[in-house]
Amino acid sequence: MLHRRALTAAISALGLLLSGSAALAQTGKVTVVTSFAKDVTDPIKRAFEKAVPGAILEVQNRNTNAGVKFLEETRANNQVDLFWASAPDAFEVLKGKKLLQTFTPRATGIPEKVGAYPINDRDGFYFGFAASGYGIMWNERYARANRLPEPREWQDLARPVFHDHVSIAAPSRSGTTHLTIEAILQGEGWDKGWRTIKDMAGNFRQVTERSFGVPEAVNSGQVGVGIVIDFFAFSAQASGFPVKFVYPSVSTIVPANVGIVANAPNRATAEAFVEFLLSPAGQEVLLEPSIRRLPVNPAVYAKAPADYPNPFTDPRLGRLMPFDADLSESRTAAVDTLFDQLISFQLDGLKAATKTLHEVDAALARKDNPAARRLAGEARDLIAAMPIDAAQASSAEIRAAFAGGKEKGARQAELEQQWAAFGRERYAQAKQKAEEALKLAR
Amino acid sequence: MRHASTGQVAAAALIAAFLFLFLVLPVATVMYVAFTEKGTGAFTLVNFADFFRTELFVRSLWNSVYVSAMSVVWASALALPLAVITTRFAFRGAALVQTLGFLPLIMPPFVGAVAMQLLFGRNGSVNLLLDDWLGFKIPFMEGLNGVIFVQSLHYFPFILINLSAALRNIDRAMEEAAQNLGSSGFRLFRRIVFPLAMPGYLAGASLVFVKVFDDLATPLLLNVKDMLAPQAYLRVTSIGIADPMGYVISVVLIVASVAAMWLSALATRGRDYATTQRGGGGLARRNLSRGENVLAWTAVALILLLVLSPHIGLLLLSVATIWSFAPLPDDYTLTHYARVFGESSVYIKNTLVYASLAGAIDVTIGTAIAYLVLRTNLIGRRWLDWTAMAALAIPGLVLGIGYLRCFYGVQLPGGQPLATLWIMIVLALAIRRLPYALRACHAALQQISVALEEAAENLGADKARTLRRIVVPLMAGGILAGFVTSFSTAAVELSATLMLVQSNSDAPLAYGLYVFMQSASGRGPGAALGVIAVLLVAACTLAAHLLAERNQRMKGDVS
């Protein structure tokens, strides 16, 4: 690709050299820490080394968390040039700890936003190179065997037929799941959003601790339906697994990113790699079946297969709601911990109450009973109740509890215990009410 | 017990220095957070109060204790018949059992989990068939019972290996004396043989208990989060949250593990397990009648089938095209092996080098510590033992971070950080697997009578010569058991390695496997690498056994 770039810039070849475009002049080894699988890194490595002769991409695979910790621990004697991963929040953490450096790529043709999300960091510390959207993935064989209908929207997953068939990664463990949860909370508001999430959660089969745990379980048919990032489903389809995928109308499109590490030993080649990823040639590699991510350069879609989703033209992906990144950041820890304490660690209680409510619904559908209907409503309110409201979630006290502020407020452990107890009690009460309702309705 | 010689003091000091530098110091640089207040960094114990005030943690603690204890029970039930059949009887399949029975310990990360789910999961082969034929499913892999099921299958070799080594070491004279006094059959086993093998059994059982207590991979694979080790892991590895509770839980894990070891040491304290006769091949092996032979083969086959099912699943997965919601794969192919063939050779070489170096370090230190603990009265010798055992409870990730913190700032001539050398991976593996070798060596030495060493010394041999010519050869079985466990488990370790691997050319098999297992199309190649890892370790184990048997026979001839 850099050849092509050089050709288009041929008229000012001299200028290019004078401006000290290190990207073309410098070559050599460049080390990247990444969470991406071999299937993603290998084709890009090949293409990059071909485009920039002499460059060698040294790939260090670590999961996102381990990668962030690694950069933190080795900053005094840094040997890494690039950090390359999906979750934007990991890059925010790195940026906050001054572990990234700014750069201004010269790549053209990449718009400001994909969906409602800015593609690049506004301060120039990291750059989106591929877009991904969250959605629902399901195993067709499993769905046929268990007579599951095709889901379309998040609310569908709350229906009784999906009970015990749905899987998700914990938002505290998966930056992209966190963004999905946050998108639902912003799209529907704090109270209604949590109600939707808990209605779905009542049907969860499991909350995994690895993002890839969800598609893995759906691929092998251990779980029917998973809430996953799109490329997991697309690459599974490309490998031949009997799975399908849909984007619900409330979702968020998020860029996967690359950034240059502060004090990178091979800065010039690192810059060349970023330029390559953002160039048309680099963007085209994303279309390969084993990768299947959405390029951020709209022009590249011309080379994509016919049914390839395009967030820049697809009306379904186009009308995604705006995303307030500042609001999201102000309550990241609170939202993740609420999810863990009220859902991940209380899943049995929540599921038991939800299951009984499903039975009440079935009984009411056969024969209505206003008293039972009222009790079931109360039970649903108990399940939906939250220990804190939206304002508290972003408040200074709660943030200090997680970040460790100087002022003496509640400690994180105390908050967690309170929230867990809140959830456990409400779920037990809800279960009781639901059982009363069931007796009346039968 | 005799007075410590200068050599012994020097050895103790050397081991202490090694443990301090590569275990205590790196871990302390990470774990001190448990004793500080968040935000200010001031010293506090409030985090521990919080631990016991939090319902989730207390529940997790009890769940962990329950699961570990039950796993010991089931692992014993699997190991006992195999150990007895192969050591007490002239059983033709003994070598087969000793090799295959050991494989479950070598379960490569990630792929092993996928294979287990595909076989025993809610929609695994077994349950799909059950549902088809009989209309019900068995929740093998659900909740705490699922954890117990998988852990017993995974870790029972600890008991099998150590118990078999101990049974082989029992003096035949003891058995004959009992028989002369009229004891036989089950009574002989219950009153004489098993009690004499107690050090080996306890070494294995305590390893199973502590290992299950500290294991995080299996509970997380089954999505059981209310156990201690997963709780610690989830907290230590969350991005950007500086929460002391993860380290508090780690401290609790270490204390509980050391306590369990101490309890098992109490159980054998004040008793003498040593016997003097050596080299005769241990217990008499009774011939089996035809019916007994059939019974023995049936029991062995059933147990092996059960404990090896994950490996059968792994093998299927490595030759499967698509395997999804079906009892068996859709179709079979060898392309996955072709795909990993080119790059696996460097992984194999690294794995062999790292794991055998780590195993060698482990048996050397393990033998030395066992000798110091059992044969000298050095002050603080038990601390060496406990410190080394504490390694069992330290999450690999914590050790990895500790190494980076301690050794990344140390520059080699040329500016390369010390932590990026591959030897650091070896040291991390050696520290992580030291407890296995240590327990095996300890149990072996417990069974050797001091009288043999005294005899050697009376004949003019000095301490070093006695150690070299008498103690170590007599401990050979235990040392081998220790080496094999350390070696093979080090060959599939990932958590500390993942932090320390700096480039693909330094990476072991487990890392290569991890890199594949993050994508849908990498599942087959990952499984193929897993099969290669298992075969590799199995071949090495078999070689070690053959070598040991030849040695034993040669010794037998001499005596």
Write a brief structural summary.
The complex is a heterodimer of chains A (442) and B (559). Chain A is of the alpha/beta class and 442 residues long. Chain A is 49% helix and 15% strand.
Spatial shape of chain B:
globular
Strand content of chain A: 5-15%
C-alpha-based Rg of chain A, rounded: 24 Å
Fraction in beta strands of chain B: under 5%
Unreliable runs of chain B: none
Q: Looking at this structure, what is the CATH superfamily of chain B?
A: MetI-like
Q: Which residues of chain A sit in consecutive blocks of at least 5 with pLDDT less than 50?
A: 4-26
Share of helix of chain B, binned: over 70%
Number of domains of chain B: 1
Query: Termini of chain B, distance in Å?
Result: 28 Å
| CATH topology title of the largest domain in chain A | D-Maltodextrin-Binding Protein, domain 2
CATH domain topology of chain B:
MetI-like fold
Sheet having the most strands of chain B: none
User: How is the biggest beta sheet of chain A arranged?
Assistant: 11 strands, mixed
Q: What does this entry look like structurally?
A:
Chain A is of the alpha/beta class. Chain A has two domains: 2-131 and 254-318, Periplasmic binding protein-like II (D-Maltodextrin-Binding Protein, domain 2, 3-Layer(aba) Sandwich), CATH 3.40.190; 133-252 and 326-441, Periplasmic binding protein-like II (D-Maltodextrin-Binding Protein, domain 2, 3-Layer(aba) Sandwich). Chain A has 21 helices and 13 strands. In chain A, strands 1, 2, 3, 4, 7, 8, 9, 10, 11, 12 and 13 form an eleven-stranded mixed β-sheet that branches. In chain A, helix 17 packs parallel to helix 21. The relative contact order of chain A is 0.14. Residues 4-26 of chain A have low confidence and may be disordered. The model of chain B has no long low-confidence stretch (mean pLDDT 85). The longest helix of chain B has 41 residues, at 335-375. Chain B is mainly alpha-helical. Chain B has one domain: MetI-like fold, CATH 1.10.3720. Helix content of chain B is 72%, strand content 0%. At the A-B interface, helix 4, strand 2, helix 5, helix 6 and helix 7 of A face helix 2, helix 5, helix 17 and helix 23 of B.
